[in-house]
Specification:
The complex is a heterodimer of chains A (273) and B (319). Chain A contains 7 helices and 4 strands, in the order E-H-E-E-H-H-H-H-H-H-E. Chain A is mainly α and 273 residues long. Chain A folds into 2 domains: 36 residues, no CATH class; 196 residues, Ferritin. In chain A, the strands form 2 sheets. Chain A has a two-stranded parallel sheet with strand order 1-2. The radius of gyration of chain A is 21 Å and the shape is globular. Chain B has one domain. Chain B is built from 11 helices and 2 strands; from the N terminus they run αααααααααββαα. A two-stranded antiparallel sheet of chain B has the order 1-2. The chains are: A mainly alpha (273), B mainly alpha (319). Chains A and B meet through helix 3, helix 5 and helix 6 of A and helix 6, helix 7, helix 8 and helix 10 of B.
Amino acid sequence: MAQQHQLLVIDNPEKLLHVSTRRTFLKTLAAGGTIVMLPSLFGARGAGSEVNPSAWRNGIQLDLSTDTGILNYAFALEQFEAAFYTAVVASAGFRTFTPEQQEVFADLRNHEVIHREFLRAALGKSAIPAIELNRTALATATGDIATVLRSAESLEDLGVSAFNGAGKYLTDAAHLTLAGKIVSVEARHAAAIRDMRDAMGVVTGAAAGTRFAGDDVVKPPGDAYQGLDVKLEPGAVLTRAAATGLLSTPVSIAKPPRAAKGTPDSGPPSPTP
Amino acid sequence: MNDNETLIGSIEPDIKHRLGDRAYQMAHGADTSSAVRAGLTMASVPVMLAALARDLNAQSASVTSVLNFALMLEIFESEFYKAVLGTTSSAAHKAAFAGVRGKVSGLAGATAALQQIQKHEASHIAFLEANGATNSHKLSADSFDFTGGKGSGTGPFAAAGSDLDVLLLMAQGVEDTGVRAFKGQAPNLLAAGNPVVLEAALRIHSVEARHASKIRRMRRQHGAPATVRLSGAIRGGGSAAAGASNIPSLGAAAVTALSAIYAGDDNTTQAGVNLTTLPNLPSGIDVTAAAQEAFDEPLTRAEITAIVQPFFKVPIPSA
């Protein structure tokens, strides 16, 4: 193999936080290559600002024309949920929650973290990088039980919508089965959160005891899709995810899914009541 | 390009689209019949197209088979809840559940919850029938033995008619079975190359999971053990996953039935990954339990059929 002069350009401080960049940095040094660190690297970003690993120029871009891309889409959502529930359990308010609330949120954190780490392991080198949450927005979202519950309902129904909309784009039966194993757990979560809010009487309109699978998420009799749960195409999911204000890493679609869209979108109420 | 000048153009537009999708599916490992494979190995394009066109009809039959199977289960569920609620057309079923019906209405929100569930099962029946499924075995309320006694009326779940805890346990088993059944059929719909039906099946599957979660929560709120999670997830596998220790009178036959319903749910390895040894898990938690809860498991058509057959007075076809 011909010797090539190695050139590594670091134009963004966040790149230094990535293992792959650090490895290349050392290899380049060892091989006598050139490392260029652009002036912007050292520029002040404003007093008190912190290096935010999420500030990739274009954020995370998903190629949904492949199973890998769709699994990364799932991985992104699981990262989001896991980070939210981790923050909930770690919040100062957690110890003021009822025993039921503590049990549910600890379970949800455990399950979403396992989903996240499983997908990360399964995707291996193909895994997208870490998605960061906006700390200020997160503090607000975890500030009181009512907001926590509303945010949780929003996230779980969004997760169900996402899996139900994206499952049909998978081409490998093993991937579809894995997605199926996860989505039913997300639906269990969604029902549990909705049921808790039902019992607290925080949402009016539905008959008491029915919110776990209310008419606002499961199509009522007479509808062409009666009895069917929420479903959203990836673009709509990512728009809603961004609208929560909780994500500081932009996540977008670089390539759309390859096949038919299936049925019209049918999402949970937005905003979440 | 003028389609009329090509061989492909001489085939009606709808078939063209489906042929393309089907070819894509087969290139990605979907099941094909030997006739199709034989057709494809011949160099003749007209023979290949004819084989693919015949395959499309066979594919529709496979989708129909899945939909009919789903319909059978939905009718079973719907008739079960109608029996409990007293809205069944069967006087016998209405009487059998009269005792527990009052206890359900004594539990805040319980009747409304079961009504919502039954409404969904009825909707699923209507949706499936509107999309190609047929009740070819003419199942009705009278087709079922809700005690699980193969028509004897004295099966393992007979107490569900009078005991609220047994009734809720049975409902839990019914819903969890439904989730596992739909999950098991998803690959068949993928292989059949029908994304619209696959999506609909996923959307019904998640509704059943919501039902299952609600029933678990109701049970826990009525004295079921802490292994029956308020998050609605399933902990453990086999009969332990049923969380029935609050019903000491539950007989061996019922425990056997529950073992089949929850067989394999204690799985903690997914796609070769041992979930319990993943990095970055929270500290101080029961990792095995969390790993069991985090993933639900499918069951095959044969496994589901074996579980539900004792509740049907007619033999359920295997295909």
